Amino acid sequence: MGLSRGSLTGMLILPKKKKKKKKKTAVLIWIFLRRRQHPRIMPTEGIIMQFKYTALQHMTRNFSELLGKGGFGSVFKGALSSSTVIAVKQIRSVMQQEKDFRTEVTTLARIQHINLIRLLGFCCEGTKRLLVYDYMPNGSLDRHLFNRNGVVLDWKTRYQIIVGVAKGLEYLHEKCKERIIHCDIKPENILLDSEFCPKVSDFGMAKLIHRDFSRALTTMRGTIGYLAPEWILGQPITPKADVYSYGMMLFEMISGRRNIDQSQRTNDKYFPVWAARKLNEGDVISLLDENLAHEANIEELARVCKVACWCIQENEAHRPSMGLAVLMLEGLVEVNLAPIPSLLLQLTEDPSSIIYYSI
């Protein structure tokens, strides 16, 4: 693979042999010990690379190019080679035992889906915890929705992203061996590759952080946004919390603006409620991002609006599963109009009742 004998030591960790009942994927872990040279390697399907911290420092030029920040940490641009760009995430304030962290990384390594960001490797030294991912050249979705810099996503691309994210969440909730609740679905955590194919990122954070997860979330503050009512009320969290967040994000993808936007002149500054009312009136085109100049598939737009309204129902039992949401979005299941959630109506009728929360 073009690696000098003095530049690294390789270790393969293979699972124990089991009876041949079902075909299972072996996860290979390469341990890189950088000495004199910067490792030159192409990531291989099914192989997770374990990096020394000093190697990641070298690859990121001492973490000099910041790609973004979030409640869980910061992400930096780096390179495995001249042609392989990576994104390195430094996880903030993790006290997890090394053995547990390695076990969870191995679990995440087995999770493969076209709409989930691919984990390439990790670093676990002392209190340092870092994850290495594929680099997404088109950045995060929020940049294209709210900070366009002259570039507007057309409806076809938006719809592709909407369905892709739904399928990624369906996989996490219903199809992977260990069910994973994302807990932080929002445009900032949807990354876009060179073809604008969406990749849900940070889907392993809740799993990796365990007991520190609630503490990590204390950095998330603001008005009612993406978090489901049951979360704010301290009730048990299920995959339906992700469904709620997904529904809130759909409204932003439709309109091209934040759900709460004081610059808008509509009577209801809280877009989801205004959208639900317009949908009930049969006026879906007025909900569309004005930068699209009404250029959208009206049937698809109406379906997305209806699905969004069902996803944000207060009672989680009334929200669809992500699997059902995919069928609705693709037109394989008929979608009826959903009622406007009473909590959201209260927010628009009495602005003083908007709750600021810290969790």
From TrEMBL:
Record: residues binding ATP: K89
Name of the protein described by the UniProt record: Protein kinase domain-containing protein
Protein kinase domain segment(s): 61-333
GO molecular function, one term: protein serine/threonine kinase activity
Family: Belongs to the protein kinase superfamily.
Position of the signal peptide: none
Record's keyword terms, sorted: ATP-binding, Kinase, Membrane, Nucleotide-binding, Serine/threonine-protein kinase, Signal, Transferase, Transmembrane, Transmembrane helix
PANTHER family, alphabetized: OS07G0415500 PROTEIN, RECEPTOR-LIKE SERINE_THREONINE-PROTEIN KINASE
Keyword Cell division listed: no
